[in-house]
Design brief:
Helix 3 runs parallel beside helix 7. The protein is α/β, with parallel strands linked by helices. It folds into 2 domains: 30 residues, no CATH class; 169 residues, SPOUT methyltransferase, trefoil knot domain (Alpha/beta knot, 3-Layer(aba) Sandwich). The chain has a 6-stranded parallel β-sheet with strand order 3-2-1-5-4-6, sandwiched between helices. Belongs to the class IV-like SAM-binding methyltransferase superfamily. RNA methyltransferase TrmH family. Pfam families: SpoU_methylase.
Length: 200
Protein backbone atom coordinates (compact mmCIF):
# COMPACT_ATOMS: atom_id res chain seq x y z
CA UNK A 1 0.00 0.00 0.00
CA UNK A 2 1.21 3.52 -0.79
CA UNK A 3 2.82 5.39 2.15
CA UNK A 4 0.70 8.50 1.43
CA UNK A 5 -2.47 6.44 1.82
CA UNK A 6 -1.23 5.05 5.15
CA UNK A 7 -0.39 8.61 6.25
CA UNK A 8 -3.96 9.71 5.44
CA UNK A 9 -5.43 6.83 7.44
CA UNK A 10 -3.20 7.68 10.42
CA UNK A 11 -3.70 11.47 10.31
CA UNK A 12 -6.30 11.46 13.15
CA UNK A 13 -3.82 9.64 15.40
CA UNK A 14 -0.95 12.09 15.01
CA UNK A 15 -0.44 15.66 16.17
CA UNK A 16 0.76 18.95 14.72
CA UNK A 17 -0.72 18.10 11.32
CA UNK A 18 1.45 14.99 11.03
CA UNK A 19 0.08 11.45 10.87
CA UNK A 20 0.53 8.88 13.60
CA UNK A 21 3.64 6.72 13.22
CA UNK A 22 2.33 3.70 11.29
CA UNK A 23 5.74 2.19 10.42
CA UNK A 24 4.24 0.85 7.19
CA UNK A 25 1.44 -1.17 8.80
CA UNK A 26 -2.16 -0.24 9.58
CA UNK A 27 -4.79 -2.57 11.04
CA UNK A 28 -8.47 -1.91 11.53
CA UNK A 29 -9.82 -3.24 14.81
CA UNK A 30 -13.13 -3.01 16.60
CA UNK A 31 -13.24 -0.66 19.56
CA UNK A 32 -12.76 -2.12 23.01
CA UNK A 33 -15.83 -3.75 24.52
CA UNK A 34 -16.15 -2.72 28.13
CA UNK A 35 -17.35 -5.31 30.62
CA UNK A 36 -18.60 -5.31 34.22
CA UNK A 37 -16.72 -5.85 37.46
CA UNK A 38 -18.59 -9.17 37.74
CA UNK A 39 -17.17 -10.21 34.35
CA UNK A 40 -13.64 -9.59 35.63
CA UNK A 41 -14.30 -11.67 38.75
CA UNK A 42 -15.70 -14.44 36.54
CA UNK A 43 -12.36 -14.64 34.69
CA UNK A 44 -10.56 -15.34 37.97
CA UNK A 45 -13.15 -17.98 38.89
CA UNK A 46 -12.79 -19.69 35.50
CA UNK A 47 -9.01 -19.85 36.01
CA UNK A 48 -9.43 -20.99 39.63
CA UNK A 49 -7.19 -18.11 40.75
CA UNK A 50 -7.40 -15.51 43.48
CA UNK A 51 -8.85 -12.39 41.83
CA UNK A 52 -6.35 -9.64 41.04
CA UNK A 53 -8.00 -6.43 39.81
CA UNK A 54 -6.49 -3.01 39.06
CA UNK A 55 -8.78 -0.07 39.89
CA UNK A 56 -7.89 3.34 38.45
CA UNK A 57 -9.16 6.41 40.28
CA UNK A 58 -8.74 9.42 38.00
CA UNK A 59 -6.06 8.36 35.50
CA UNK A 60 -6.49 11.04 32.81
CA UNK A 61 -3.62 10.38 30.40
CA UNK A 62 -4.51 7.78 27.73
CA UNK A 63 -0.83 6.79 27.45
CA UNK A 64 -0.64 6.11 31.20
CA UNK A 65 -3.84 4.09 30.91
CA UNK A 66 -2.31 2.03 28.10
CA UNK A 67 0.90 1.51 30.05
CA UNK A 68 -1.05 0.33 33.11
CA UNK A 69 -3.16 -2.07 31.02
CA UNK A 70 0.06 -3.45 29.49
CA UNK A 71 1.59 -3.98 32.94
CA UNK A 72 -1.66 -5.54 34.18
CA UNK A 73 -1.60 -8.07 31.35
CA UNK A 74 2.07 -8.89 31.99
CA UNK A 75 1.43 -9.28 35.74
CA UNK A 76 -1.52 -11.61 35.20
CA UNK A 77 -4.23 -9.26 36.50
CA UNK A 78 -7.74 -10.39 35.65
CA UNK A 79 -8.96 -6.94 34.70
CA UNK A 80 -8.81 -3.17 35.01
CA UNK A 81 -11.59 -0.91 36.29
CA UNK A 82 -11.84 2.70 35.08
CA UNK A 83 -14.40 5.43 35.71
CA UNK A 84 -16.77 6.95 33.18
CA UNK A 85 -15.94 10.41 34.55
CA UNK A 86 -12.60 11.85 35.61
CA UNK A 87 -10.85 9.13 33.63
CA UNK A 88 -9.24 8.48 30.29
CA UNK A 89 -11.17 6.07 28.13
CA UNK A 90 -9.59 3.52 25.82
CA UNK A 91 -8.52 5.41 22.68
CA UNK A 92 -6.19 4.60 19.78
CA UNK A 93 -3.35 6.12 21.84
CA UNK A 94 -4.24 3.84 24.75
CA UNK A 95 -4.28 0.76 22.54
CA UNK A 96 -0.89 1.68 21.08
CA UNK A 97 0.64 2.35 24.51
CA UNK A 98 -0.74 -0.99 25.72
CA UNK A 99 1.14 -2.83 22.94
CA UNK A 100 -2.07 -4.74 22.23
CA UNK A 101 -2.81 -5.67 25.85
CA UNK A 102 -6.29 -4.12 25.50
CA UNK A 103 -7.14 -7.20 23.41
CA UNK A 104 -6.31 -9.53 26.33
CA UNK A 105 -7.35 -7.71 29.52
CA UNK A 106 -10.96 -7.20 30.60
CA UNK A 107 -11.74 -3.51 31.14
CA UNK A 108 -14.76 -2.42 33.15
CA UNK A 109 -15.96 1.18 32.84
CA UNK A 110 -18.05 2.13 35.85
CA UNK A 111 -20.09 5.14 36.94
CA UNK A 112 -18.75 5.14 40.49
CA UNK A 113 -15.23 4.04 41.51
CA UNK A 114 -16.01 3.94 45.28
CA UNK A 115 -18.98 1.65 44.57
CA UNK A 116 -16.73 -0.59 42.43
CA UNK A 117 -14.26 -0.85 45.33
CA UNK A 118 -17.16 -1.83 47.60
CA UNK A 119 -18.27 -4.47 45.09
CA UNK A 120 -14.77 -5.96 45.00
CA UNK A 121 -14.58 -5.98 48.80
CA UNK A 122 -17.93 -7.80 48.97
CA UNK A 123 -16.34 -10.40 46.67
CA UNK A 124 -13.68 -10.93 49.38
CA UNK A 125 -10.85 -8.95 47.78
CA UNK A 126 -8.65 -6.72 49.92
CA UNK A 127 -8.51 -3.15 48.59
CA UNK A 128 -4.98 -1.73 48.65
CA UNK A 129 -4.65 1.95 47.78
CA UNK A 130 -1.37 3.31 46.42
CA UNK A 131 -0.40 6.33 48.53
CA UNK A 132 2.92 7.81 49.65
CA UNK A 133 1.60 7.85 53.24
CA UNK A 134 1.01 4.09 53.14
CA UNK A 135 2.96 1.17 54.57
CA UNK A 136 6.12 0.12 52.69
CA UNK A 137 4.98 -2.33 49.98
CA UNK A 138 7.52 -4.95 51.05
CA UNK A 139 6.14 -4.96 54.60
CA UNK A 140 2.44 -5.00 53.67
CA UNK A 141 0.79 -8.25 52.61
CA UNK A 142 -0.38 -8.00 49.00
CA UNK A 143 -0.80 -11.72 48.39
CA UNK A 144 -4.16 -13.37 47.81
CA UNK A 145 -7.33 -11.75 46.40
CA UNK A 146 -6.48 -8.09 45.79
CA UNK A 147 -7.88 -4.92 44.27
CA UNK A 148 -4.92 -2.59 43.69
CA UNK A 149 -6.24 0.98 43.59
CA UNK A 150 -4.12 3.59 41.78
CA UNK A 151 -4.87 7.31 41.99
CA UNK A 152 -4.66 9.96 39.30
CA UNK A 153 -1.49 11.59 37.99
CA UNK A 154 -1.89 14.88 39.83
CA UNK A 155 -4.12 14.28 42.82
CA UNK A 156 -3.57 10.64 43.72
CA UNK A 157 -6.45 8.79 45.35
CA UNK A 158 -9.62 10.76 45.99
CA UNK A 159 -10.50 11.07 49.69
CA UNK A 160 -13.54 8.80 49.43
CA UNK A 161 -11.70 6.08 47.50
CA UNK A 162 -8.79 6.17 49.98
CA UNK A 163 -11.29 5.74 52.83
CA UNK A 164 -12.82 2.71 51.06
CA UNK A 165 -9.42 0.98 50.87
CA UNK A 166 -8.58 -1.58 53.55
CA UNK A 167 -5.02 -0.25 53.72
CA UNK A 168 -2.62 2.07 51.89
CA UNK A 169 0.67 0.93 50.44
CA UNK A 170 3.72 2.94 49.37
CA UNK A 171 6.75 2.34 47.17
CA UNK A 172 9.98 3.17 49.04
CA UNK A 173 11.85 5.99 47.32
CA UNK A 174 15.45 7.06 47.69
CA UNK A 175 15.85 10.06 45.39
CA UNK A 176 14.99 13.74 45.60
CA UNK A 177 11.81 13.71 43.47
CA UNK A 178 8.73 13.12 45.60
CA UNK A 179 6.70 10.78 43.42
CA UNK A 180 6.67 8.32 40.54
CA UNK A 181 4.62 8.44 37.34
CA UNK A 182 1.27 6.71 37.99
CA UNK A 183 1.91 4.10 35.29
CA UNK A 184 5.36 3.26 36.66
CA UNK A 185 4.06 3.08 40.24
CA UNK A 186 1.22 0.79 39.17
CA UNK A 187 3.65 -1.57 37.44
CA UNK A 188 5.99 -1.72 40.44
CA UNK A 189 3.11 -2.51 42.81
CA UNK A 190 1.65 -5.16 40.50
CA UNK A 191 4.92 -7.03 40.33
CA UNK A 192 5.51 -6.70 44.09
CA UNK A 193 2.11 -8.35 44.54
CA UNK A 194 3.13 -11.17 42.18
CA UNK A 195 6.47 -11.55 43.99
CA UNK A 196 4.61 -11.98 47.27
CA UNK A 197 2.20 -14.48 45.68
CA UNK A 198 5.15 -16.59 44.48
CA UNK A 199 6.82 -16.41 47.90
CA UNK A 200 3.83 -18.08 49.62
Amino acid sequence: MDKRHLDEICLPFGHGGKPGNHQGIVAYAAGVEYCTVADILAVAREKNEDPFVIVLDGILDPHNLGSIIRSAECAGAHGVVIGKRRSASVTAATVKASAGATEHVKIARVVNIPAAVDELKRAKLWAAGADMKGQNMTKQGLNGPLALVIGGEGDGLSKLVAEKCDFLVAIPQYGKIGSLNAGVAAGILMFEKKRQDKAE
